[in-house]
Structure formats: structure tokens, C-alpha cells
Amino acid sequence: MKISNRDVDDILARVRQPLQDDQTLSVSLRTTLELLIALIQILTAPEKPAAKASASLVGSQFRVVGYEKRQVIDLDISRFVTEYPAEILENAQGRRIVAPFPDGVDRPVQYGPSVKTQAVYLSAYQLLPYERIREYFEDQAGIPLSAGSLFNFNREAFDRAAGFEYWVKDRLTWLAGAP
To answer: Is residue 63 assigned to a domain?
Structure first.
């Protein structure tokens, strides 16, 4: 099973081997760790489907003629942080040079485009008040936002869309005058 794009079975296999090899662990600690690994396996194991219809009808007059499918679509709201380290070089005179960060990464901590987009959508399209949006991000993803940040996200979206209005008007005017 994968959780947040990590293969739980692979991780447990890598943890189990050093645990078996380490002879310095006490019996109680080893037993506790093995129990925890077993619990993780039980909790992350995919649910076993009920016995297949064909398996319980062995020897009868039935034959498999196809399959019926069902899908479960779900949403995973999660928070992840990407950290960008920049190497710092210093010469003998104490002069420092810092490697550049990627475009748009200009503060020590900042919100990414997905957070901003979701916040603006909830504010401008769903018309939710800032306090409710702030609570949503805190409760669902553990992301603390202030009303000031939400206001700034909306302002940034407005500023970025400012030229779009003129572009659309220009295109519509051109289309209206086209033969």
C-alpha cells in the first residue's frame, strides 16, 4: 500500500531487517517493535474482497461470463512542504555568495500556488468569509492562514487577471467587426 506516494510494505521490510540483525535490543523492546510493525501492516493492508462468486459455486452449472466494476473516487487533502537549500560560499575576505533560488521562491516561508488558488476560489467563487476559509485550511490540512494572507491572495489574483479583461474586450471587438 502507498501512503503519500510512499510504499509502506517496502519501508516496513527495510525496518524489519535491521531489527532482526540488532542483537543489542532488549526482548521487550524487540517484541514491542515487532507488534507495532504488525499493527501497521494490518492497518495498511488492502481490504480483502468477499469470496469470488465463482469460488463458492465450484462444481455447479455456472460459468464466468464477465465482471461488474465499481469505482470509488475520493479526495486526499494533504499538506506538503518543499524546501529549497541554497549553497553559501565565502572567500578568505569574508565575501559571501548565495546560490539562486527557483523563480518565485523569494521568502523563507511562503504559500504555494495550490494554497493560493484554493483560497481565492473559496473566497471569490464560493463567497466564503475569510474566517471560514482560515478554519478550513487549519482543520483540513494543518495550514495556518491569516485574514491578511487571504486578502493578499485575492489581491494577487486580481492583479494577475487585470490584463485579461482588456484582452477579452479586444478579441470580442475584433470578432464583432470581422466579416
So the answer is: no
